[in-house]
Write a structure and sequence with these properties.
Elements lengths: L1 H14 L2 H8 L4 E6 L4 E4 L1 H7 L3 H4 L13 H10 L8 E5 L7 E10 L5 E10 L1 H36 L8 H31 L8 E3 L1 H18 L3 E2 L11 E3 L1 H17 L6 E2 L1
Parallel strand pairs: 7-9
Antiparallel strand pairs: 1-2, 1-5, 3-4, 4-5, 6-8
Helix pairs in contact: 6-7, 8-9
């Protein structure tokens, strides 16, 4: 009886104005409406197109787990219905089957004139093209960044050779100019590294690999590698030796290495010549 009342309330809302119904039918987005018993009471043409199900098959069906076993298309409908989301929020869902679509699913409650909830609807927006463009952009950024690393590394090696006067003595003005060029090249290398990290994040490849390690050894290794650059900047660089051995802890060595280097790099950059970085 409750289901019948809710269905009638929905029907009253939908048939109140034929123009409203015509507009809903011609939407570019898919629209699925449910009553309070989670029974489908409306399924527009775009929803049919996206999910490969006919409205006459779906309307009146209660979304239950047994539907999943009928076909991959019913499984998509079931999965979309079971997306956990708050009111007026959106989540993404990629359909299974031969026609893979990336859908943005928005959840909206439906209420009567007394503001009582009488059901809900999900709006399906096809974002497949946007997702494909995102992947192409990420692929381009990744490829371009990898290709830039080689020439930038070669430039760094050449400039470093000149600074160390490996190809002959330089006057002070020449040294200053090469040092400035070297610093600019270092910023470019850092920018390319950031672009690669962004690309990995977008592709879902920027994961974490945790293992037990010695944090003290990691810091000491970074200290030894950074020490050369600190001497060039005329800074006092000191590593305080631990009074006791640190216990092994779980961390991602590569990611923590980046984090610690960033802290040390900032300390080096913003300390005046002759200052102390400890």
């Amino acid at each position: 009886a409750t289901a019948l009342v809710n269905t009638r309330l929905f029907s009253d809302l939908l048939t109140e104005k034929d123009k409203t119904l015509a507009t809903i039918q011609s939407l570019k987005d898919g629209l699925i409406m449910y009553d309070l018993n989670n029974r489908v009471i409306f399924f527009n043409p775009k929803a049919e197109e996206f999910l490969w199900l006919k409205a006459k098959e779906v309307i009146g069906k209660k979304i239950e787990e047994k539907l999943k076993t009928q076909s991959i298309y019913w499984q998509n409908l079931y999965n979309i219905n079971k997306i956990v989301q708050a009111e007026y929020t959106s989540k993404e869902y990629t359909t299974k089957g031969p026609q893979k679509l990336a859908l943005e699913v928005s959840y909206i409650p439906v209420r009567d004139q007394q503001y009582r909830k009488i059901g809900a609807m999900q709006i399906l927006r096809n974002i497949t093209k946007e997702k494909e463009l995102e992947l192409l952009k990420a692929s381009f950024v990744s490829t371009a960044s990898h290709q830039l690393r080689t020439p930038l590394s070669a430039i760094k090696w050449a400039l470093d050779t000149l600074i160390k006067e490996g190809l002959g003595r330089l006057n002070q003005k020449q040294k200053d100019l090469i040092r400035k060029t070297f610093a600019t090249n270092e910023r470019l290398i850092s920018l390319v590294a950031d672009l690669l990290d962004v690309s990995r994040i977008e592709e879902g490849r920027f994961g974490y690999n945790f293992s037990l390690g010695d944090l003290g050894k990691l810091v000491k290794k970074i200290f030894e590698e950074v020490k050369i650059d600190v001497k060039r900047r005329n800074l006092n660089f000191k590593l305080k030796e631990l009074t006791q051995t640190l216990p092994p802890i779980s961390f991602d060595t590569d990611k923590l290495d980046i984090a610690i280097r960033n802290v040390i790099d900032n300390a080096i950059k913003y300390t005046r010549p002759g200052g102390l970085v400890e």
